[in-house]
Amino acid sequence: MYVSVSRLRVPANASEELIAAFRRRAHLVDDAYGFVDLQVWRSDRDAGDILMVSRWHDREAFKAYMRSAEHRISHERIDPQLQALIKLEALEHLHTYDVVAE
Predict the structure, then answer these.
(1) What are the helix (H) ranges across 32-68?
(2) Residues 71, 3 contacting (CB under 8 angstroms)
(3) In this structure, what CATH number is given to the domain that contains residue 37?
(4) pTM of the predicted model, to two decimals?
(5) Which end of the chain is less crowded, N or C, counting CB atoms within 10 A of the terminal residue's CB?
């Protein structure tokens, strides 16, 4: 299992707009080889703190999608004004762990 976590920062008053954009996403990633799922989390303490968590079968599948036309198309759909508000605070990849219990 490979997990990618992107910590996004937006002004608190823009968090609903960002969440709505995720809900309207093109779903192009859904058919990508190795894709498992995608969730968007918002902090209950800070509305401007958003985590985008995606799970993949392995790192190679994630890397292939990140280089794909589908990834580029998905990002091109983001409203430029909203895009300007989004700051990537951290990017973490959990790839040195194995799922050992569910």
Answers:
(1) 59-66
(2) no
(3) 3.30.70.100
(4) 0.87
(5) C
